[in-house]
Amino acid sequence: xxxxxxxxxxxxxxxxxxxxxxxxxxxxxxxxxxxxxxxxxxxxxxxxxxxxxxxxxxxxxxxxxxxxxxxxxxxxxxxxxxxxxxxxxxxxxxxxxxxxxxxxxxxxxxxxxxxxxxxxxxxxxxxxxxxxxxxxxxxxxxxxxxxxxxxxxxxxxxxxxxxxxxxxxxxxxxxxxxxxxxxxxxxxxxxxxxxxxxxxxxxxxxxxxxxxxxxxxxxxxxxxxxxxxxxxxxxxxxxxxxxxxxxxxxxxxxxxxxxxxxxxxxxxxxxxxxxxxxxxxxxxxxxxxxxxxxxxxxxxxxxxxxxxxxxxxxxxxxxxxxxxxxxxxxxxxxxxxxxxxxxxxxxxxxxxxxxxxxxxxxxxxxxxxxxxxxxxxxxxxxxxxxxxxxxxx
Length: 393
Hints:
The structure is a single chain. The mean pLDDT is 94. The strands form 2 sheets. The protein has a 7-stranded parallel sheet with strand order 3-2-1-4-5-6-7, sandwiched between helices. Helix 9 crosses helix 14 (344-356) and helix 12 packs across helix 15 (358-375). It has 393 residues and is α/β, with parallel strands linked by helices. The chain is built from 17 helices and 13 strands.
C-alpha cells in the first residue's frame, strides 16, 4: 500500500497551525506506509526542503504558487468558482497529481483548496478539511461592509456547496474538532464526517526542554509580560492582537505595569503599527518557546476561530497560564485549566487575576500541562487514521 498526501502548502517547517497539523499527520502516515507528497510552496525556500524532511517520503513534489489574490478573484468571478479554489488552481499541480495517482492505493487530501485535484474515479480518499472554511467566510461577511460583504457571502455560499459535494464522494471527511464536525453536519453535509483532533508535542513544548531564551532587555523591573503567538498575516490573528492592544491592554495597565508581545512572522503594517512603549512586535523568531516560557500570561483573544488553536495547546504544554476568548477555547478539552472570557472587560479581569496571583497562575499552568499530556499526544489523536486508511504501525 502507498498514499498520496496532497497539501495546499508544504507541511515543513511545522511553524504555523496548518503546517503543524499537516507535518504530524504526514509523519504518522509515513511511519506506516510509503507516502508521496505533492504540495505547493509558500516561498522559494520551500522548493528545496531538507533531507531531514524528504527522507521519510517515497517522493516529494513541491510546486511554486505565484498567483496573486487579485488574479484569483478575477478568475473566480469569470468562472463562477470560489476564490479559495481559483487561488490554488494550477495546471502544473494537476499534472503532478495525475502522475502520482496511478502509483498509490489511497489519497490523503489536506485542506479543501486541494480537493479540486481529486480524480473523479480513483483510489479511496480521506478528505481533511481541518475547519469548515465556508463558515469562516460567512463570519467575515458579518463583519464586512459594501462590496467586500457581497464577496465574502459569495465565497461562503460557493465554497460551502463545493465542500458538501466533495464530502458526498470521499471515504471520510475529517475536521479538527467535534464542534467543526457538528457544524458541517448541521449545515447539511452527507457522508462519514469525523473529528480527528490536533495533538501537541509535549517533549518539544516542555518548560524543561532546551530552547532559545528570551532576548535580554525585554523585561525590566516589575513589568509583567503578556504574550500572543501566531502567524501574523492571518486575519483572525490580526483582529485578535488589535483588540487586545487597543482595548484590553489599557484596562490591564490601569492596575499593573505590563507589556504585550506579539510574536510571529509576517506582521502586516496594521500589526506593526501597534508597536510602542507597551507593545512589542517581534516578527519571525527562531524559537517561540522562549517567549512563551517567559510569559506571565499567554493570551488568545480571537473573535473568530475555527477548530483547535495550536497556540493554546503550546502554551498549556509549556505550563503557562492562558486566557482565551470563548471562540479560541472552543474545541479544546482544557478541563478548566485555562481561563475563558467573552468581553473586553472580562478578558482584562481574567488577565489581571492571574497577574495578581502568580502562585495560582503557576498551579494553573502546571495543571494545563498535565491535561495536555493526558489528552493531546499526537499518536493518540491520530490513531483513528489507521482504520480509515487500512494502515498498520
